[in-house]
TrEMBL record:
It comes from Teichococcus aerophilus. InterPro entries: Bleomycin-R (IPR000335), Glyas_Bleomycin-R_OHBP_Dase (IPR029068), Glyoxalase_8 (IPR045517), VOC_core (IPR037523). It comes from the Bacteria. This is Bleomycin resistance protein. Keywords: Antibiotic resistance.
Length: 178
């Protein structure tokens, strides 16, 4: 359910109310709380949903396609290591390559064994919250092919994972106030 108040005004009011109670919160954190109240994963999604479409064009989701070569290894990496769930899979017939959708916490990826669908070695940039917790979760799985760490970059906290097919997913959490 959408509020009649403008989301930015709601975030500003939330931040002011918390500051009156001596609870410090960044503007970015207030925006993400308002987004959660609207039922979306983060402020960027809410802002995109509320962006005026002057020409009638509106994009609702980005879904990268990543090329895979071995279904068993792809399942081990995406489902086992990264903790995604398998949403669906498709084949055009017997002895055809897999095309599947995996997702987790608002991120959706398509995995394709079809030649020409995607280029191995691509990079996907994903904004997220909770990068420290995710890194700890991955470290706890003790995956022998990857031990990602978090780098403190000028634009945010970044954790890059590389799948067995040389595709990189660069997870980035914006710095507070960023």
């Amino acid at each position: 359910m959408r509020s009649h108040l403008e989301p930015k005004a709601m975030a500003k009011a939330l931040r002011a109310a918390l500051q009156e109670r001596q609870i410090p919160i960044t503007h970015g954190a207030a925006l993400d709380i308002v987004a959660a109240q609207h039922g979306v994963a983060n402020w960027n999604i809410l802002a995109a949903e509320n962006a005026p479409a002057t020409d009638g064009i509106r994009f609702s989701q980005t879904c990268p396609i990543l090329r895979i070569f071995d279904e068993t290894i792809a399942r081990e990496f995406y489902l086992g290591f990264l903790g995604f769930q398998l949403d669906w899979e498709h084949r055009f017939g017997d002895n055809f390559p897999l095309y599947a959708q995996v997702s987790r916490a608002g991120l959706t990826l398509h995995l394709s064994g079809h030649h020409g669908d995607a280029t191995p070695g691509s990079t996907v940039f994903v904004r997220m919250q909770g990068i420290g917790a995710y890194q700890q979760e991955l470290a706890g799985r003790n995956y022998k092919h990857g031990k990602p760490g978090v780098e403190d970059e000028a634009w945010g906290l970044v954790m890059t994972v590389t799948d067995p097919f040389s595709n990189r997913i660069r997870f980035c959490q914006d710095k507070p106030g960023g």
